[in-house]
Design brief:
Distance between the termini: 81 Å
Strand content: 5-15%
Strand order of the largest sheet: 8-10-11-13-12
Radius of gyration: 41 Å
Number of domains: 4
Number of strands: 13
CATH architecture of the largest domain: Up-down Bundle
Shape: elongated
């Protein structure tokens, strides 16, 4: 066999194997789908055509070449009606197809296939079979033209009424088919009719793009965005070019070395090993560069996921997590609306069942077996352990494009991370509840003790009342004792109620300097009486705080009072505000006093309810501080030494 025939084998064989692979793979993927069957039939006829050309252009027996050239017409005759049937099923998968009616005109060509009307003669040339056509080829051109017009009519008519996703698919069908018939009809019909057969080998190549893109659409139920196709094409193309350059450099240097050491077998093995080792990291670096330069959305997905991971690690409430998701998802994916549905009764039972069975997101376009009246494009279940805590409903994008593979991967990753966070929140809440139950007994005992003291004082004064009712000095002390102890009990109950129930936060943005100036004005007179100076280190740059202003006022007032009570003989309170911190929070507020300080042993207990070292304290002030900090997802640290003072650091 000469080199031209070998070249024909090399050219035809990959196309044939690819067509047969697509035929079998699409059919096996869903044997019940009529759309899959129609496309597999189309691929089979293309495969049959390529096989006939392969035999005709590689045989050296003239009669065999004539037989296969005549038989080859069956493929092009059956391809147009097959594509028409496929298009009709694509438009309406429930449509009843009259297969006999569609394929009936092709019988005329099949009957005349082995006559001189089809192919008169074949001449064996060095490049393959040169054929002399009969008058049937003119009718074959009309056959292609009429079927194509009918198919295009149905597709274009449906294009105006279908969804955006179907319009994209239809456009790809039309472009792919036009490309295929433009090349195929030119090289294998028009040129052959006028006596030029040497370019017929090009025709089968025109089917590759059409088959590959259409097969992907059927199997994935959606086409990749053209940007994704371009992105992957760029990555692989640049990788191949660079690998080829590297290989050329290696070969060049080895050719120089081979003059002295020859070309041993291990050198070829070394070339392969080097290319294998560098190919994967090279492709990775190229992908990152291309993503950053041309496909920023991909890089934004990675950044969004990173930012989300950092934020949800410190989330302690479901509401805060959902707030992050409702901000992150529409901003990243450019979606019109995202809703969170906590009432599962409003979710279709079939979708809920699918969530529990498969634990996957629901995509409306991809779900053939589940129907829903909900207009959401995507529904995302958020699991807290084994139960569904709620469902995110994603509406359409601003661009009206369908959710592509990259989008769905991003949404799935977000869903998985959010589910883990919800499970942690749930577990943490159960732990907190169990700790609260365990502390209830301790609280009850401490509360009884704290209330018992003022009651005992009032009881003692009250027992003297029958004997000293006319003693003015006694009556003044009685009134003063009752007033102070009742206020103490009332303050204790108020603080205990604040400590026990959740705080409804009213978040606002306010200037920290104005805030602390007002707070200092409030405690200023008390500080003057105790000879306490207040040093402010606010800096020149204004720092704003996002928090519940009223709760923040209570928090810092309690800390100020704690510092004032620690310096009965005077001292200094320093306030420092900065947002120049290398930490997960935006702002750091430091309140430091020069009071008596706290021992390390007692420092661990200062936030415990009812724990106090002061005779007049209730032990609830710093407990309330900690609760306000936790409700805001802020953080507080305390440093202290005996006789050196105490430093409170609040991270906001």
């Amino acid at each position: 066999m000469n080199s031209s025939y070998q070249l024909n084998y090399i050219l035809y064989s990959p196309i044939l194997f690819f067509c047969l692979f697509i035929t079998i793979f699409v059919f096996i993927k869903n044997t019940k789908s009529r759309l899959n069957k129609a496309f597999s039939l189309l691929c089979f006829f293309i495969s049959f055509w390529v096989f006939c050309l392969l035999i005709a252009d590689t045989t050296r027996i003239q009669n065999v070449a004539l037989f296969w050239c005549r038989l080859a017409i069956i493929g092009p005759v059956l391809i147009p009606p097959s594509f028409l049937a496929f298009s009709l099923l694509f438009i309406d998968r429930k449509r009843e197809i009259n297969w006999l009616k569609i394929y009936f005109p092709a019988l005329f060509f099949i009957i005349l296939a082995f006559t001189d009307w089809n192919v008169k003669k074949v001449f064996l040339e060095s490049w393959g079979s040169d054929i002399v056509t009969g008058p049937l080829y003119i009718f074959l051109f009309l056959h292609f033209f009429i079927y194509s017009v009918i198919t295009f009519y149905f597709l274009l008519n449906n294009y105006k009424k279908c969804t955006y996703l179907q319009r994209v698919q239809t456009a790809f069908f039309l472009i792919g088919y036009l490309f295929a018939i433009a090349i195929g009809v030119t090289t294998n019909l028009i040129l052959v009719t006028i006596g030029i057969s040497k370019f017929s080998v090009i025709g089968p190549f025109s089917t590759l793009f059409f088959l590959a893109s259409t097969a992907y659409a059927i199997l994935k139920h959606r086409f990749m965005d053209i940007s994704i196709v371009l992105r992957k094409s760029l990555i692989y193309s640049i990788t191949i070019i660079l690998l080829s350059c590297i290989y050329a450099v290696i070969v060049f240097f080895l050719s120089l070395i081979s003059i002295y050491i020859g070309q041993p077998f291990w050198v070829s093995i070394l070339q392969i090993i080097v290319l294998v080792i560098i190919s994967t990291p090279l492709q990775y670096y190229i992908k990152n560069i291309i993503d950053k330069l041309f496909f920023r959305y991909k890089y934004d997905y990675q950044k969004a996921l990173k930012d989300m991971s950092e934020k949800i690690n410190y989330i302690k409430k479901e509401e805060d997590l959902i707030s992050i998701l409702l901000s992150l998802i529409p901003t990243t994916l450019k979606i019109k609306n995202v809703f969170y549905e906590k009432d599962l009764k409003k979710i279709d039972s079939e979708i809920l069942e699918d969530f529990y069975l498969n634990k996957k997101i629901f995509v409306k376009d991809l779900s053939e077996n589940v129907s829903t009246k909900d207009d959401s494009e995507v529904m995302v279940p958020l699991f807290a352990g084994k139960k569904i805590a709620g469902v995110l409903k994603l509406k359409e994008k601003y661009s009206e494009e369908p959710y592509n593979k990259e989008d769905l991967q991003f949404i799935t990753t977000v869903s998985n991370q959010a589910s883990v966070a919800l499970a942690n929140i749930d577990a943490n809440q159960k732990l907190i509840d169990s700790e609260r139950i365990a502390l209830m007994g301790e609280f009850a005992a401490k509360l009884a003790h704290e209330i018992k003291n003022p009651i005992a004082a009032m009881k003692t004064m009250n027992q003297l009342f029958p004997f000293r009712r006319n003693d003015r000095d006694y009556l003044d002390r009685l009134y003063d004792t009752f007033d102070r102890q009742l206020k103490r009990v009332n303050n204790m109950i108020v603080n205990l109620l604040k400590l026990g129930k959740p705080i409804k936060l009213n978040i606002s943005k306010f200037d920290s300097q104005d805030f602390f100036n007002k707070l200092i004005d409030l405690v200023g007179s008390q500080c003057e009486l105790q000879n306490i100076n207040i040093n402010k280190k606010f800096g020149n740059k204004k720092v704003f705080i996002n928090a519940d202003k009223e709760q923040m006022f209570q928090l810092f007032l309690n800390i100020f009072q704690n510092s004032i009570q620690a310096m009965p003989n005077g001292g200094i309170i320093s306030i420092e505000i900065t947002n120049d911190i290398n930490f997960k929070f935006d702002t750091l507020i430091i309140i430091k006093d020069t009071g008596c300080g706290i021992s390390q042993e007692k420092l661990e207990k200062i936030f415990d309810p009812f724990y106090t070292t002061k005779s007049q304290g209730t032990g609830l002030g710093l407990s309330l501080v900690k609760k306000i900090i936790e409700e805001h997802n802020f953080e507080i640290k305390v440093e202290s030494e005996l006789s050196q003072g105490t430093k409170f650091m609040i991270f906001i």
